[in-house]
Amino acid sequence: MPKLNMLFLSCAAALSLPVAADEVKHFQSFAGYTGLINTPNAEVMDSGVVDFGYNNQLDFQGQRYMDGHNFIVSAGLFEGFEVSGQVASNSMHDNMFYSEGRGQTRDLSFNAKYQIPYIPQDWLSVAIGMKDMGGAANNYKTIYAVASKELWDFRFSAGVGASDRKTGQMDGAFAGIEWQPFKWFSVLTEYDSEAVNAAARLTIPKEWLYDIGEITLTSRFYSNTELSEDTSNYWGINFTLPLSDELGYQQPVKAAPNVQNNTANVPVATKGAASINPDAVKIQTPNDYTLPTVKPEARTTAKITNNTEQQAELSQLNSQSVTLKLALVEDGFENVSVAFNNNNQLFVKFENSIFNRNDIDALGLVLGRVAELITLEGVEFSVQLNKYDLALLNVVGTVDNYKEFITNNISPDLLITLGAALEPNGLVWVGTTDTSSPYFKPRLTIAPTISNTYATELGVFDYSAAIRADLEVPLWQGGGIILGGQVNVANSDDYAENKPFKNYRKETQFDRALFYQTFELPFGFYNQTQVGYIKDFYDYRGISNETAWLSDAGRHKVSFKFGSFQYQDYRGSRSYQMFNYQYNWVEQDITLHAQAGDFWYEDSGYKLESRFWFGDSYLAVFFEDSSAQRAGAAISIPLSPRKDMSVTRFGQVKGNEAYRHSIGTQVGKSRNQLVFNQLYAPSSIVGLDKTFFNQGRLSSDYVYKHLPRLKEVYLKYR
């Protein structure tokens, strides 16, 4: 008790001192939240950072501590908020229906923690959190509040919690002290409401790991608890890394000074602003593109001189346009078209097949090339992004203004709209597009696919893994063919023949042969039809159709998709129809999704999902209500480099630019039963959202928000 009193008095005294502190790093605890050993502190994970952890201190059903397995994945969803999922188990593979596994635990739980904002940093930090929230069986349910204060190389934390666990952990007052004498070493001591614990933590910096992430090793070497089989040592290891390197290069763009345009002051768009004064850009209406009328006046020496200068400028613009087109083709872009007129207006159309993770990278490189290679003063440009000759997005501006953005980081004055740009009159096209045509060139996507379960009575992790190959061959405007299949590479025992999960195994099979046709319709509508063969346990032939509408700035997307397929070998059919809505909250890099309808396995219901984007990856939380209510989390990461290989006449090989993996648990019931393929509809490698809408980020507001990325990608790949 004297030790306990001294710990609390130290924390209370530290929390009351107004002394500025050196930075003390924060790490994950054994319990699934940022903290010490068993207790939290008031820090949270940085936004866009994920942590994969393992430790062997099993809190067995909240009754006692023993040697076991804890697998924890944690992530910072946005500033001040972290979530985590934890699997706790006595063993990895023991079957709990047999004698070998009777009496064991295997539990899946979710945790959340929020740091209270608006508290001055030199005061203290305060956070609230909950452990084991929302599931069917809440063995570790805990709520808590904690405050922390950093002084020199120390962080002092104290808080109060409520828990029903028999161990008494986090049920009452708790406190802890972290001492970090070196950036790579920390010593921890805490009182967790039941016992005093001590640990040491060693960090391997990311500089030693090729700047990918850092590894942390933790050893709990002391505890005075009487509820543990082994009081000498429990240990853990964590690997922490950012989801995107974009977090490191985003820099604020300077607001441009007011400029004069005739007699009016023109406001300039700044980072994150979607509005722009149309007067700032001349290319907007057909009247702007009409050639000037030449009156039959007497030719003078001055006029001849002016004509000579204009011809010289046009000759220079022609030469630079040729160079620009060759550079864009060399970069790997397809369907490149470049034109100009005698009003010093430049028009560029291109298709992106190399920056498959994000079309904004392609846009940034093309705009950078325009600013680099067009040196004639006063040139206005219009750059249009297409996909298989369907217009997606266009950017209008002036070359001189964009050069200021590249060289001085001053916000560019751009007009960005969805769809096709209005072509100026009198265009002179440079060359042909034959050499960069996208048609009849195969694109092969290779990626893993997996069926799996977590924390069931049969094992901690069961899986069936395959390597999938999908071949797309575009044939003409908006149309092409899709062929796909997979090869099984590995299965856990429970996915073997005559085992419980055999029906969900990833079999070696050819399962896609489809023809697709996409149309760009008026008023922001797009339509895609797919016809052909799919295999989903059985062989089906049929048709699917999706119609989508995008708002002017791309913030709202509404779509309806239906499919009807007939079983080939006997009378039987499958069908689905579903409505989807997406809101693109570009200021926070969040997309909100809602889906409802009738699905492939004759179930009906709805799904709500929030995606938190970090570069080209996202973390998602979702809730679905159908035959069962489920809640869970998902992660999507690119399994391809930022810039893929260029498409040659033989084709292209690439990885999956948006590989998604999810985990969920049943809620609202006393038992957590497995739910497979709920709210499922078959899909293919080509779709409106994935192929044409930049994974739901086809938005002018999105481009305005990510202006620094336009500059960064050009500087990296120029």
| Biggest sheet overview | 14 strands, mixed
The counted number of beta strands is: 34
Estimate percent helicity.
Answer: 10-25%
Strand portion: 35-45%
Distance between the termini: 66 Å
Point out poorly predicted stretches: 1-21, 259-303
What strand line-up does the widest sheet have?
A: 33-21-22-23-24-25-26-27-28-29-30-31-32-34
Provide the residue-averaged pLDDT: 87
Shape: globular
Organism: Pseudoalteromonas neustonica
Keywords: Signal
Protein name: YjbH domain-containing protein
Signal peptide: 1-21
What order do the helices and strands come in, and which of them pair?
Layout: H1 2-15, E1 49-60, E2 64-78, E3 81-89, E4 106-115, E5 125-131, E6 142-151, E7 154-163, E8 172-182, E9 185-191, E10 196-204, E11 214-223, E12 234-242, H2 246-249, E13 259-261, E14 264-266, H3 286-289, H4 301-331, E15 334-340, E16 345-351, H5 359-373, E17 380-387, E18 390-398, H6 399-408, E19 415-418, E20 428-429, E21 443-456, E22 459-476, E23 479-491, E24 509-520, E25 525-536, E26 538-550, E27 556-567, E28 573-585, E29 590-598, E30 604-614, E31 617-625, E32 629-637, E33 652-655, E34 659-666, H7 688-692, H8 700-705, H9 707-717
Parallel strand pairs: 16-17, 21-33
Antiparallel strand pairs: 1-2, 1-12, 2-3, 3-4, 4-5, 5-6, 6-7, 7-8, 8-9, 9-10, 10-11, 11-12, 13-14, 15-16, 15-20, 17-18, 18-19, 21-22, 22-23, 23-24, 24-25, 25-26, 26-27, 27-28, 28-29, 29-30, 30-31, 31-32, 32-34
